[in-house]
Design goal:
alpha+beta, 4 domains, nine-stranded mixed beta sheet, five-stranded antiparallel beta sheet, metal-binding
């Protein structure tokens, strides 16, 4: 087995946070990818099989001898045997001009001289003189080389195998690359071969003996790889030491180009770099505005350097992830995470976030409790949901789909007592009382269910848009770079706010004509305004009931359940809702907005426009201003025009049908028009009349 080029390969962390080092995480999307590749392979095999339904025949032509071998091999597998390459004949002019493919049981074993040992091994041969064969001959026709079947026989003198046995023939037993990596990892951890096979069976959810290879193949693979692994380990150790020194030099050089750039590192007892962290001047300045909520992503680790990658992100006022800092850690324990958090706080000049969002990890949890005692710790629900399949799909079997649906509902319950009750019911119903992953989730329950964290400020980092933004950043920096220096440069490019572009909304239309909507549009970014606008639209469907103490019960006019209590303090212009949406996201909920409208407020109080969501806090200068005056003129013109069109169309059915048909056609035409940047520069209507 030849040594592979030493590239920096990033993979998702596979060690389960339950603490059992034998437990292995397989993410749902990875399962789908694996399943998809298996389906592609099976479809390829099926399509190949459909092509080789017909028995080979003398005179059949192939473009190459490899194509003929694959064809005959597929035919053999379908018919219960395998083949091997036998004799080849070559000449000076044509090179190899004949190929002989025979049944795997063709010929007889030649007697070998027995070794001079006390108990020589007496292996039985599978060869029995079978005469099944396919002979190829090469010819050149009109200057094009082709191969034709010169002899063919499908007569066997042995029993042909059924499908469940033919797959065990050596020719069809393959260990895929992903399985090879897993086998080497388990072997390195001290697992014997029989346990490695059992672990793979459990992970893949197959019955014993149903893997596409057998224990003997695993043993041979481990033996063959042993020397190569040792050689690669030596190469990797040398590469890691050299590249870490090069990364440190790159950090020192960056301080000359970026005055705000900071870094920190630790060394082991031999003076070799263990951990390293860094951040940029732009990131530190961004933290002063958007550092209230930080996500610490530890999803990936480097196989090449055997190091964990941790990236700190914030969320800016356009809902996108912004880079705040980066760390490479040799170990995944509480001491390493404590050092990382200490470095981050130092980078941010002693400032700490209100909330930190992480994956589920006991070591990280302990480190946060020590280093950030006043910071709320939230475990990202998306990280938990991505592991649920790996934890419960096998033990629950056919019940898993129903369990997953109930678990999702449980995650979003609003009341702690309801969560506790439903949790106990779920555990009892599916018999998971002694499951270690259930115990893990319950021990961390104050950090992940919505019922516990609804009062924590999260600034919308739990949205799918933000999650996609983080994934996009990581995909841009994680590829097979050959050195850490190049990885460092990639992060610098991705983290530079000057390189970022923003899709700007030049026109944010008013939907309700309420003065508070018009007022908010001039203060908030388009992203934040669209969220608030959605709440304003919802507020118009809420009914209010004033209580004796001046509070309000607010509910949807069609729904009797789900009402919220809104407390109004007029002297301080304070409004508080039991749904805690403002405390959670920094954006007022529809219930509070409804009360403000009832109280004849034409503007939302300034305190409910946090600085982090305002236009003035934007990190990237906008190319153009959001058009307000001209867009208002457009809005008024269109309102007038559509109102007149609507009233005229109601005079007769013929008019209505005509208007409906033409407007539908016009809308489709407008949607298909190309978008040109200059269109947004002048939105003022020209020569628009009402009739």
């Amino acid at each position: 087995m030849a040594a592979k080029p030493v590239n920096n390969i990033w993979i998702r962390r596979q060690q389960c946070p339950c603490g059992d080092w034998k437990c292995y995480i397989r993410y749902e999307e990875d399962d789908q990818t694996t399943l998809g590749s298996q389906l592609v392979k099976s479809e390829t095999l099926s399509s190949s099989s459909s092509e080789v339904v017909f028995t080979p025949y003398v005179g059949q032509i192939f473009k190459s001898d490899d194509e003929a071998f694959e064809y005959y091999s597929n035919f053999a597998r379908m018919n219960g045997f395998s083949i091997r390459k036998a004799r080849s004949t070559e000449s000076q002019n044509l090179g190899i001009y004949r190929r002989d493919f025979v049944c795997y049981r063709s010929g007889f074993n030649q007697p070998r001289k027995k070794a001079n040992v006390e108990h020589p091994r007496d292996r039985k041969s599978v060869r029995c003189g079978c005469d099944a064969k396919l002979y190829l001959t090469k010819e050149i026709v009109d200057g094009v080389t082709q191969w034709y079947v010169s002899q063919f026989s499908n007569v066997h003198n042995h029993e042909l195998l059924e499908d469940d046995l033919v797959r065990l023939l050596p020719a069809y037993r393959k260990i895929q690359e992903a399985d090879q990596e897993r086998i080497l990892l388990l072997s390195k951890a001290g697992f014997p071969v029989n346990r490695i096979v059992r672990v793979l069976e459990l992970e893949k959810g197959v019955q014993p003996g149903q893997l596409p290879f057998i224990e003997k193949d695993v043993r041979n693979f481990v033996r063959t790889c042993k020397k190569t692994v040792q050689e690669n380990d030596a190469l990797l150790t040398e590469k890691r030491e050299n590249d870490m020194l090069e990364l440190l030099e790159a950090c020192k050089a960056m301080t000359g180009r970026d005055e705000g750039f900071v870094y920190n590192f630790t060394t082991d007892e031999n003076g070799k770099i263990e951990n390293i962290a860094w951040s940029y001047g732009d990131s530190i300045r961004a933290f002063s505005v958007f550092g209230d909520v930080v996500t610490f992503d530890t999803t990936y680790r480097s196989i090449t350097y055997n190091m964990l990658l941790g990236v700190w992100f914030g969320i800016e006022n356009y809902g996108k992830a912004i880079f705040l800092g980066c760390v490479l850690l040799q170990d995944e324990n509480s001491q390493s995470f404590s050092w990382a958090l200490q470095s981050f706080v130092r980078f941010m000049r002693g400032r700490r976030p209100q909330t930190i969002v992480t994956d589920i990890d006991s070591g990280l949890k302990d480190a946060i409790a020590i280093e950030l005692p006043n910071t709320k710790h939230v475990i990202c629900i998306w990280q938990i949901l991505s592991k649920v399949s790996s934890w419960f799909s096998l033990p629950l079997g056919l019940q898993y789909a129903e369990f997953k649906s109930e678990f999702n509902m449980l995650c979003h319950l609003e009341n702690v007592e309801d969560f506790e009750h439903q949790w106990n019911h779920l555990v009892a119903r599916y018999g998971l009382g002694s499951d270690k992953h259930i115990d893990l989730l319950f021990s961390h329950r104050v950090s992940w269910p919505y019922s516990y964290i609804r009062g924590y400020f999260l600034a919308r980092v739990m949205t799918t848009e933000y999650s996609k933004s983080v994934d996009m950043f990581l995909k841009n920096i994680l590829n097979a770079q050959t050195c850490l220096h190049f990885f460092f440069e990639q992060i610098g490019i991705a983290a530079n706010f000057g390189n970022q572009t923003r899709e700007e909304l030049l026109y944010m239309p008013i939907k309700t004509c309420l003065p508070i909507e018009e007022h908010a549009r001039g203060i908030l970014t388009p992203y934040t305004f669209s969220v608030l606008q959605h709440e304003i639209v919802l507020s118009m469907q809420y009914a209010t009931t004033e209580m004796a103490n001046g509070s309000y019960l607010v509910r949807h006019y069609k729904k009797m359940e789900g009402e919220c209590l809104v407390i109004w303090l007029s002297e301080d212009e304070q409004v508080h809702c039991s749904c805690k949406e403002f405390e959670h996201s920094g954006i007022l909920c529809g219930h509070c907005l409804r009360v403000l409208v009832v109280k004849n407020y034409f503007q939302i109080p300034e305190k409910y426009f946090p600085l982090r969501w305002r236009l003035e806090s934007s990190l990237v200068p906008m190319d153009g201003q959001i058009i307000q005056n001209s867009s208002d003129e457009c809005s008024q013109a269109f309102h007038s025009l559509t109102a007149t069109l609507f009233s005229e169309s109601l005079i007769s059915k013929e008019r209505f049908d005509y208007v409906h048909r033409e407007v539908t056609r016009l809308l489709e035409h407008v949607r298909n028009m190309p978008v040109i940047d200059e269109v947004g520069l002048n939105l003022a209507p020209n020569n628009v009349t009402e009739s």
